[in-house]
Amino acid sequence: MPSLKDLRNRIASVKATRKITKAMQMVAAAKLRRAQEAATAARPYAERMDRLLANLNQRANKSNAPRLLVGTGKDDVQLLIVMTAERGLCGGFNANIAKLARQDAQRLLAAGKTVKILCVGRKGADNLRRAYGRQIIDRVDLRGHKQIGFDVATSIANKVLGMFEAGEFDVATLYFSEFKSVITQKPTALQLIPAKLPEGAAGASEAQAIYEYEPGENEILGELLPRNIASQIFRGLLENAASEQGARMSAMDSATRNAGEMIDKLTLRYNRQRQANITKELIEIISGAEAL
What we know:
7 helices, five-stranded mixed beta sheet, 292 residues, alpha/beta
């Protein structure tokens, strides 16, 4: 049974932990608003880009269309771009993204495909290293960037495009967490190469006006497709940033409440043991006095 001193030390320790988790919750709440606004603002651009590519895809000549649109004609080598956070203490945010990527990697390997993994963020590499350490070909460190800008997405996109031009993979899939709300973040897999147009986009574009493009559909696609990859990666980074802060806010709120409950239980236990010690001492004094 712990002594009164041990209980006091433990209560003080839990109180200090509660202060830390409360502070982290407030910081995450402050960062969440900016991150959520940035993620929400990026969605219309990405959706409009998808509709434009769908329109161009309908009118383009498939015989000489860019490889980023039609692919290499095979899917033997798969590149998984797993984007997670650099820090932990955000609930199941990092683990859920890594779990989705791990399931797809397992399915692809079982089908006889070659899997390569590009990790963006330290936690994704940590989660996947034990099972798929040999498949991890590189890791992009985000710790040096105070804010996630389009230049970060462009550098990642250039790395992916360089690997594709070198023939190092056939299909590239992006993994990130789509922000729904503070308590809900949805792990998402988005195929980048070859470009996978959203369902219904082509049908919706048929009812719109017919545009004439100059210089030509294939030439425009050749310029837009690399930018679309950078845009989708940028959107994934922004969604991840908002999801990370939302998950951290929820996790720290839960930790703060759990610490409060633990303090109440330890305080009650401390008071009971202290009262028992006082009662025991009184009994000893009374017994001693009666013995005299």
